[in-house]
Write a structure and sequence with these properties.
401 residues, alpha/beta, 7-stranded mixed beta sheet, 3-stranded mixed beta sheet, 13 strands, 16% strand, binds pyridoxal-5'-phosphate
């Protein structure tokens, strides 16, 4: 396609048409009610297996009540960035709670996980430094690495031997090295091999950044996530990123670590400095959801029951499962058209499950990304399994072709 570039949008139109032809076109759905076990769409109720609201807190009335109380106390907007006049005692309190939760000296709030990842990598690395990224890392981590202008190196997914070989190749370089990994991988649901990453970082004088967007609230003692402070010192994983829009059911993100890291971010992280502080009421609401997430162990226990049941059921139906013990349980079908077809067939039967296609996942691995939440019942999972069973016949016919 060597179309001469003009002033109109003809070339955009032709690229959009191309996306449609390849079943890669993305559309948004307008939900007509709150996030939860059931969502309303086009006037109908759907059982929702497509959110990251793992603990079912996005619609929790106690969190909503805290949000309203926060607005009464703080108003809606903060009116400025944290460094001008937008930083409040509500932010400070939440940061202290997040530091205590992660067992680290300090935490710093960001507007989103995307901003935190780009912001922290850029504050730490620049030209001449090195960043090592797992093949399946989240887009925000990759973007952070690219924008930093550090030398960017991939390592094969979960392959610490590959990582070590690549680290060894630059052992003689005196500059900064950062190993970057999702804690729980967002599209596959498997956990990183943290012991191996930490060992590699110790042998090759590198830092480790773990983005535990999908692990926090869900895994470990009190939902502390993949980086349990009883097992890992802050120096083992100096940079820990968590998001608040997933298991914690609100929005925003944070970085947790030592004072020198947090102060460096405040001085140098552009995504922290040049942006309006999140509403204080959101910080108040998040403090409530954090408290619920930590104390209500039954949510995590119930999730484990649902995950085991879903995996056993889909295995019986002949689906190939990925090695995930998390609420992310993808059914990989390969072709984007097939993933879309299955997603549509499930929707006709009352289930909302997203088809995930490239570039979010590698070519040839399009999938249904089933996510379970503590708001689901065992009966909900069983009804999804029943429906998958009716569709499995067509599915295996299609995959045999
Ligand atoms: C969702 C996600 C993010 C982005 O977080 P937001 O707060 O939604 O911007 C970052 N990292 C990972 C691994 C994620 O899954």
């Amino acid at each position: 396609m060597t179309m001469r570039h003009g002033r109109g949008f003809d070339d955009l139109e032709s690229r959009l048409a191309d996306l449609r032809r390849r079943d890669m076109y993305r559309v948004r759905r307008n939900l007509e009610g709150p996030q939860g076990r059931e969502v309303t769409l086009e006037g109908h109720a759907f059982l929702n297996f497509s959110s990251n609201d793992y603990l079912g807190l996005a619609g929790d009335p106690r969190v909503a009540e805290a949000f309203k109380r926060g607005i009464d106390r703080w108003g809606t907007g903060t009116g400025a960035s944290h460094l001008i006049s937008g930083h409040t005692a509500a932010h400070e309190e939440l940061e202290e709670a997040l530091a205590a939760f992660t067992g680290r000296p300090r935490a710093l709030l960001y507007g989103s996980g995307y901003a935190a990842n780009v912001g922290v990598i850029n504050a730490l690395l620049s030209v001449g430094d090195f960043v090592f990224q797992d093949r399946l890392n989240h887009a925000s981590l990759l973007d952070g690495g690219w924008i930093s202008r550090a030398t960017f190196t991939w390592f094969e997914h979960g392959d610490s031997a590959d990582l070590e070989a690549k680290l060894a190749a630059v052992d003689h370089e005196p500059t900064r090295k950062l190993i970057v990994s999702d804690g729980t991988f967002s599209m596959d649901g498997d956990a990183c091999r943290l012991d191996e990453l930490v060992a590699a970082s110790a042998r090759h004088r590198a830092w480790v950044l773990i983005d535990d967007a999908h692990g926090m609230g869900v895994h470990g003692r009190s939902g502390v996530g993949v980086v349990d402070p009883e097992r890992y010192a802050t120096t083992d994983v100096p940079v820990l990123v968590g998001t608040l829009g997933k298991a914690f059911g609100t929005a925003g993100a944070f970085v947790a670590g030592e004072d020198a890291l947090i102060e460096t971010l405040i001085q140098r992280s552009r995504n922290y400095i040049f942006t309006t502080a999140m509403p204080s009421a959101l910080a108040v609401a998040t403090q409530k959801s954090l408290e619920i997430a930590v104390t209500e162990d039954w949510r995590r226990e119930h999730l484990v029951t649902l995950i085991d049941r879903f995996r056993a059921g889909t295995r019986d139906l002949g689906f190939d499962l990925l090695p995930s013990t998390s609420p992310i349980q993808p059914l990989v079908v390969g072709d984007p058209a097939r993933a879309l077809g299955l997603s549509r067939a499930l929707k006709q039967r009352g289930f909302l499950i997203g088809a995930i296609r490239p570039p979010t996942v590698p070519e040839g691995t399009s999938r249904l990304r089933v996510t379970l939440t503590a708001a689901h019942s065992v009966a909900d999972v069983d009804s999804l399994l029943d429906t998958l069973s009716t569709l499995a016949a067509c599915w295996s016919r299609a995959s045999a072709s």
